[in-house]
Amino acid sequence: MASSHDADTEGITRRKSLATIAGAGALALAGCTQSTGDGGEGGDGSLSGPINIAGSSTVFPLMSAIAEDFSEQHPDVDPDISSTGSGGGFSNYFCVGETDFNNASRQIQEEEEQLCADNGVEYIELIAATDALTVVVNPEADWIDSLTVEELATIWESDAVETWDEVRDEFPNEEINRFGAADTSGTYDYFIENVMGERGHTSDYQATEQDNSIAQGVMGSEYAIGYFGFAYYYQNPDQLKALGIDDGNGPVKPSLDTASSGEYSPLSRSLYTYPSIESLGEEHIAEFARYFVRQTTNEDLVAGDVGYVPVTEETQEEQMEILEDAIEQAQG
Amino acid sequence: MATDNATDGGFGEVSRVRGIVFEYLSLGASVAGLVALGVLLVYVAIDAFDLADASPEWLLTYFLTLVVPFLAFCLYSAGDRAVTRRALGVLGGGLVAVAALFTAVEAFVVEIPRLSWQLTYLFVVAAPVTAYLAYVGSRGRVGAVGFGLVGRLVGGAAIGLAVGTLFLVFDELVWFLAYTLGVFPAAVLYAYGRWRSAGRAMTAAAPVGLVGIVAAVFLRGVIATYPSDLLIYIWTLAVPIAVVGAVVVDGRGSRIAAAAAGGVPLAVATAGGFLAGGFGVPGPTALIVLIAVGVPTAVYVHRAIDEGDGLIGLGLPFLLVVGALVGALVVEAWGVPAPDPWLDVGFVTGSPSRTAADAGLYPAIVGSVIIIALVAVLSFVLGVGTSIFLEEYTAESGLIGSLTRLLQVNIANLAAIPSVVYGLLGLGLFANLLGLGFGTAVTASLTLSLLILPITIISAQEAIRSVPEDLRRGSDAMGATRWQTTKNVVLPEALPGILTGTILALGRAIGETAPLIMIGAATTVFSAPDSLFSKFSAMPMQIYAWAGFPQAEFRYGVVAAGVITLLVILVGMNGTAILLRNRAERGN
Asked: Which among B226, B521, B536 is the nearest to A36, CB-wise?
C-alpha cells in the first residue's frame, strides 16, 4: 500500500509538471498555427474541384494533354481521365451520372441516348478534333500503294476474300493477314459504318485495343494489312506504309491537310466529347469545357503533340456557341 | 544419388539414366524460367536507365569508383583468401569470356539489340559476383555492421516516405487530436504503470486511449485553430520516435548516450523540417524522413560502438557516397558522355504528361501505396480472423463440421476466380450499392482485399494448422482458456507463416489492373489523391496507358521506368514484411 501511495503522489506532481510544460509549449508555439474555418478556400475566386472524364481510348491522349495544361494553370482543379472505350464510358459511367465528360470516337448511339434519357442525364456534343483512320501495310510491300473503298470493303467485310489476288488481279497470290480494332472500340464501329455498311466486319482478324499491337503485327508480315487512328502513323511514319484511299476521285493519302479539307474520305472522322449539362453548372467544369474548345484549334498541341487534325476556326466558333448556351442553361 | 546405384544383394543393377535425366530436366526447367525473367529485367533496366546510350567510359568510371570499393569492402569483411582468389578469377575470366562470346555471337549468329559486351559483362558477371560477395561479406562482422547501417539508412528513408505518403490522405488534424488526447495519455499511463508496476495505471491505459480518440473525432469539427503541420508532425511523430530511441539506448548504456541518440536526430530533423521549404521540399516530409532515418541509425551506431567489434564497417555508407561523388566528379570533369535515365527524380515526383521527357508517376505511386496499405490492414484482419475461427473455433464433426468443410471448399474455389469478376463485384457492391464512389481509394482497397482474401485465409489456415497440437494441449493442461491459448500459443507460433501468405497475396494485389478498370479507377490523374474518397490512379493503370501511346519514347523509356518503380516499391514492401516475419520467427 505504502508504495502505491508514494506512486500516486509522485504521479500527481509529474502530471502537474507535464501540464505546466505543455502549457508553456502551447504558448510558445501559438504563433505557428493554421485555421480550418469554412469558406476560407477559394476566396480569391480560384477554381477548384474534381473533373471526372471517361471514354474513348482514341480521344484519351488529346484529353489528357489538354487536362494536363489546364491543371497546371489551375492547381486546385483535379481532372481524372479513364480510358474505357467510347461505349463503355457511355453505358457504365456517363449515362448513369458518374462522369462529367465522355469522350467518343463516334457519335452517341441510340441505346446510349435512351439510357442517358432514362437516368435524366442531359448532354451536349462537342467536336474535339478530326482523325484520319489510316490503313497501313508493311513498308516492304511495294506492290501496293492504294485501295479503292470497294477493295477495302472486300478485304474487311464479314464474308471476306482470302488472298490478295482476289482483291485486285495484279496483287500476289498470298493470304491476307489482318490486324484491326476490337469490337468494343469506336474505331471498329466507324470503320464498319463508312466502309462496309451492311456487309459487316470479318471475324478472321487479330483484334486489339492497342495501336502498338496492330503496328507490330503489320510490321511482322509483308502481306499484312491493318487500320487504326492517325496518331500512331503520324508519330512513327517510317515504320509502316499508309495506303491512299480512292473514293472515286483518285487515291488520297492520309495527312493533316487531306483530313482537314475532307478530301481523305470516307475515313476522316470527327472525335467528340460529351459534357453533361448538369456538370457544366459547376464553374470549374464550365471553365474547363471552354478551355477545351479553345484548345481544339491549337495546332502544336492537337497535331504536334498528339497527332490529330485541329478543328477549323468556324467549327470552333459554333462549338463555343453551343457550349455557352449549355452553360447558361445549367447555371441559370 | 548414392542409393540409386546400390548393386549388392538380389536387387541387380539399377539404371541411373532416368535419375540423371530427371535431374537435368528439372535443372533445365528452373534455368529456362529464371533466364527468361532475367533477360526481361535486364532489358527493362536498360530502357529505364538509358544504359544503351551509356558510354564504356561512363560504365568504367562508376565501376571503378563505386563497385570496386564495395567489392573490396566485402572481401575485407569476409577475410578469406580463397574467396578473394575465386572472385578475382571470375571477374577477370568473365571479362575475357563475355567479350569473346558476345563478339562471336554478334559476328556469326545474330545481332543483339541495345546491348554491348560491357553491359553484358555488367549484368552477367559483375552483378552476380557483387551479390555473392555481399552475401559472403555480410557474414563477417565488419560487413554485418556496414550492411546493418546502410539498411537502416535506406529502410528509414523508405518508411519515412511511406508514412509521409499516407498522411496525404489521412487528416493530420484528426491524428493530432487523437494522438494528443488518446494515444499520448494512454502511452504515458502504460509506461508509468510498467515503471512503477502499478496494474491500475496499465489497465486504465486502453479505455483512456479509446475515449481520447473518440473525443478527437468529435472535436475535429469543433476546433478551428491548429498548430501548423510541421509542429503536428514534430509533436506526434518525431518526439515519440526520439523518446523510443532514447529509451532503447538507455536500457543498454549511459544517460548521456540515450539523450544524444534521441536528441541529436530530433534536433537535426526539426532543423531540416524548418529549412526544407527553402529547397523546395515539403517540411513535414523532410522531418519524417530525417527522424525515421536518424533515430534507428543513432541507436544502431551506439550498439555497434558498445559492442566494439567491426567498427570499420560503419564506414560503408561513406564509402558508397564518396564513390558516387567521385564518379560524378570524374564524369563532369572529363566530360564523359553520360546516359540520360528515364527513371530520375523528376519521374517519381512529377505528374503524367504528354511529352515523354516530362512524364511522371507521382500521383499513381501515391495511389498504389495508399491502396496497398489499406489492403494490407484489411486483408490481414479479415483473413486472420476467418482462419482462426475456422481452425480454432468451429467443430470438426456433425452438421457444423460439414458446413465448415463446405465453406472451405468454397474459399478454395474463390481463389481461382478471375480478378475481373471481383472488379464487377466491387463495382456493384461498393461503388453502386454502398455508394463508396466510382474509382475511389476506399472502393479499390475493399475490392482488392476481397480479391486476395481467399489466398490470405488459406495460407493463414495452413500456418495455424501447422502449430503442433501438443502445444495447444499443453496450454489447455495449464488451465488456459481457448482465447488465451490462441493468443499466447497459436498466434505467435503461426505468425511467420501467416505473414508469408499475406506478403505473397499483397504482391498480387499491387499489380492488379483488371478490377481497378472495372471499378472505374482513373487511368491518369495529375495530382495525388488527398482523401480516401477522391479519384485515384494506380501504377499498373498508368503504365498500361503509356504502353499504348504512339510515341516510341513512351513505349521504350517511360514504361520501363514505370515498371522498375513498381518493382522497387514491391520489393521494398516485401522486404519490410520479410524483416518483420524474421523478427517474429526469432522471437519464438
From this structure: B226
A–B: how many Cβ contacts below 8 A? Answer: 115
Which residues in chain B have Cβ-Cβ distances shorter than 8 Å to A98? 438, 520
A134-266 and A49-130+270-331 share a CATH fold: yes
> Strand B225-227 relative to strand A33-35: parallel, antiparallel, unpaired?
antiparallel
Contact A36 B173 (CB under 8 A): yes
Q: What residue of A is the nearest CA neighbor of B523?
A: A82
Encode chain A (332 residues) as per-residue pLDDT tens digits.
Answer: 344 444 444 445 555 555 555 555 554 554 466 766 443 344 456 888 899 999 888 899 899 999 999 999 998 899 999 988 888 889 888 998 889 999 998 889 899 999 999 999 999 999 999 888 999 999 998 899 999 999 999 999 988 888 999 888 889 999 999 999 887 777 888 888 888 888 888 888 988 878 888 998 999 889 999 998 888 888 888 889 999 999 888 899 998 888 888 889 888 888 999 999 999 999 999 999 999 999 999 888 888 888 888 988 888 999 999 999 999 988 87
Q: Which residue has the cell 570496386?
A: B68
pLDDT tens sequence across A147-197: 999 999 999 998 888 899 988 888 999 999 999 988 777 788 888 888 888
Whether residue B228 and residue A307 make contact (CB cut-off 8 A), yes or no, is: no
**Which residues on neighbouring strands pair with residue A131, listed in sequence order?**
A269
Side-chain half-sphere of A211: how many Cα atoms within 13 Å? 28
- From chain A, the residues in CB contact with B527 under 8 A are 71, 75, 78
The fold of A49-130+270-331 is D-Maltodextrin-Binding Protein; domain 2 (3.40.190)
Q: Do A35 and B525 touch (CB under 8 A)?
A: no
CA distance linking residue B581 with residue B588, whole number of Å: 11
User: Between A34, A78, A307, which is nearest B525 by CB?
Assistant: A78
Contact check, Cβ <8 Å, B224/A35:
yes
Residue A133 CA to residue B447 CA, distance in Å, equals 38
**Which residue in the set A34, A80, A92 is minimally distant from B524, CB to CB?**
A80
| Unique residue bearing C-alpha cell 529502410 | B155
The Cα–Cα gap between B269 and B261 comes to: 13
What homologous superfamily is domain B356-587 in, according to CATH?
A: MetI-like (1.10.3720.10)
**Per-residue pLDDT tens for B417-466?**
888 899 999 988 998 888 888 888 899 999 999 999 999 999 999 999 99
Out of A71, A82, A209, name the one closest to residue B526 (CB): A71
HEC per residue, A107-174: CCCHHHHHHHHHCCCCECCEEEEEEECEEEECCCCCCCCEEEHHHHHHHHCCCCCCEHHHHCCCCCCC
Q: Which residues of A88-100 are buried (b: 16+ CB within 10 A; e: fewer)?
A: bbbbbbbbbebbb
- Is A79's CB within 8 Å of B525's CB? yes
Contacts of A50 in chain B (CB under 8 A): 534-535
CA dist., res. B131 & res. B169, Å (int): 38
Do the Cβ atoms of A210 and B547 come within 8 Å?
Answer: yes
Chain A residues within an 8 Å CB radius of B228: 32-34
By DSSP bridging, strand A146-148 and strand A244-246 are: parallel
The Cα–Cα gap between A79 and B531 comes to 15
Optimal mutation site among B234, B436, B549, B555, interface A, most CBs of chain A within 10 A: B549
Q: Where are the domains of chain A?
A: 49-130+270-331, 134-266
Q: What is the ipTM of this complex?
A: 0.79
CA-nearest of B90, B72, B91, B66 to B136 is B72
Boundaries of every domain in chain B: 1-46, 51-138, 144-344, 356-587
Q: Which CATH number fits domain A134-266: 2.120.10.30, 3.30.365.10, 3.80.30.20, 3.40.190.10?
A: 3.40.190.10
